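Quick bug: Allergen Asp f 4 output formatted oddly.
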Amino acid sequence: MKFSASTVLLAAALGVSAHPHGAVHNHVHRDTNLEVRDQFVKNVKPTTTVFQTVTVPAVNAAAVPSSSSSAAVAIAAATTSSSQAAATTSASSGSSGTIGSSGSYTGTFCTGASKRGTVAENAFAGNTGSGTYGCNLKFVEESAAKNYQYISVLENAASEKQVCACFLKTGPTGEAFTGFWKGKQVLDFELAPGAKKYLAVQDGSIGGCSCGVGSLPLTALGQISGVWYEWEFGSWSDKNKGFSGADASSLVPEDNGNPIQGMTITSETPEYVSGSEKKSIIYPNGDGCNAFPKGTNGEDGYGFNIANSQKGGDAIRLHAKWGTTGTLADCPNVVEGPKSWRQTRA
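Here's what came back:
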């Protein structure tokens, strides 16, 4: 599912990251947002042409290096439009009443003009909303969550306020890998200690959410740089046929020298998650459990692999908590082929 490794290349092209090694470089060409073990296949760009130009938002012109880079990079003016939807804060710890069933999803999203790209192009870019950018994401009341097929419960497990954002892989201008920069995010929100919000996501959407204690973490060039909860729900890819995926990733903050915090993702509908994949964790010290900690830029196959999640099918509920504690000793000793869930920070 991981696409955070590709963001390192954008920073590298701007002179921020010092180590875009070959394995990472390959991610730009073969996009790994749905790299999973058995059912999923990579959601690759529908063309034989590799990325030559990447458009990213201008945050501070003085911060952009004047030297040339191996990638031609155009700096676009940042758009400051950011949707803030009605949200709920709940201290309830259970999910009773928030999970619907096939055929019961009455919740609606935006309607408008359809995408003009081919089916393959739209699957690569992901759903970005019909008519209005980002209207495929919204916060809903806990009592209304059962009306939506794909719900992410976002929670603050820390004792201090978290400042957060949710974003899409593709930015407002239609360029892939540009939605997670300052001013491009879809939703800005805060989580008080113990608070939760319920994020409803429309099928075909590819994106993530990130939080920081006290303020939203950013890189020097304005890339959102907290620990990421990466997700894709109801894939539009012909090969993935509606499957979903998610993972915890600290690649962006680690590769940019930003602080990290613990984050844990679990499933409230584990019966639909393949194998033993019931969690994806970044620990406070940087180690990982079935996730993408420092040093895994060139790897794939970690995180959640969620079947039976085609549009209109089974309800999927993932629960992401920022500010969690724990150590690698808490990670189940699961080995899948050559991959172990227990990952020591490189």
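Actually, after a second look the formatting is fine. Confidence is low (pLDDT under 50) at residues 11-96. Closing.
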